[in-house]
Amino acid sequence: AKQEGRDRHRFFTAELQAQSARMLSLENALRQALHNDELHLHYQPQLSIDGRRLVGAEALLRWNHPQMGAISPAEFIPVAESSGLILPIGAWVLRTAAAQMQAWLQQGMPADTTMAVNLSLAQFNDAGLCDLVATVLKETGLPAACLELELTESVAMHKPAEVIEVVRRLRELGVRLAIDDFGTGYSSLSYLKQFEAHKLKIDQSFVRNLSQDSDDQSIVQAILGLAHSLDMLAIAEGVETREQQSELQLLGCDEAQGYLFSRPLPAEAFEAWVRAWQA
Ligand code: C2E
Ligand code: CA
Ligand code: CA
Ligand code: CA
């Protein structure tokens, strides 16, 4: 039994070492990624719940390493966050997505379409965030109302008082705010009210079994009631089936995003998708 314990210990130690070695090599590789042009954005369409109108796009980061291949954001975003690399990378994401959106507006995309960009906690804690956003808007010429910043519910509730102050200054710039992964954290309703976000994003975990699970239907209904009573729009993420879409429509959800409409796409493929969708 003693030997078994030692073996287990050794096994877990080896696993931990392998894991931290991978994290470290990812961190070193990520340091080069920006300069080596290995990062790209994909864009996923957001539609009105009836699927008729394009209301926006969400920018999602992609990393293609020359040897390791495509690495999932679920794996490298935490590395970027813990190493501080999320600040330069996040600034690049913001610039690139804003410039892309401005180009699309000039190509005739309706002026009320929005570009959503994900922000990390480290970016919210950075004193330079508001200046960065203001500079990017100025440099790209993108109207502030066309930029939507997404912060997750857990980031929003991490240090609510501080975050609310940053959010207030961002709102003064005229950008829109969305609370991401809503329903997975623990929101204080009084704080939620103070955020004055424009949109709640219903986490895909509540959407997955929506057609069968009456608990999930109740949760989504409650989130929609909350959103609408606070004058926010609600968008459902991870919508993959017609059944989910019609259930959401029945419940009164405003917008939807998911593989049913399109996967996140490179800019040119996104443009082709929009043309085909309108046709
Ligand atoms: P998120 O912000 O919640 O993004 C939604 C995720 O769901 C994306 O995964 C998207 O590709 C995926 N998705 C979209 N539609 C469907 C669907 O119908 N079914 C399923 N199963 N999944 C769907 P992705 O692109 O792998 O990104 C994962 C997470 O990484 C994001 O979750 C976000 O938290 C983070 N992330 C991605 N890009 C950025 C970024 O530029 N900055 C920051 N800070 N985080 C980012
Ligand atoms: Ca998001
Ligand atoms: Ca989300
Ligand atoms: Ca998520």
Automatic annotation (TrEMBL):
Taxonomic superkingdom:
Bacteria
Q: Where the shown chain sits in the full protein? A: 683 to 961 of 970
Compartments reported by the entry: Cell inner membrane
Query: Mind giving the lineage of the organism this protein is from?
Result: Bacteria, Pseudomonadati, Pseudomonadota, Gammaproteobacteria, Pseudomonadales
Protein name per UniProt: cyclic-guanylate-specific phosphodiesterase
Task: Tell me what organism the protein belongs to.
Answer: Geopseudomonas guangdongensis
Domain EAL residue range list: 23-278
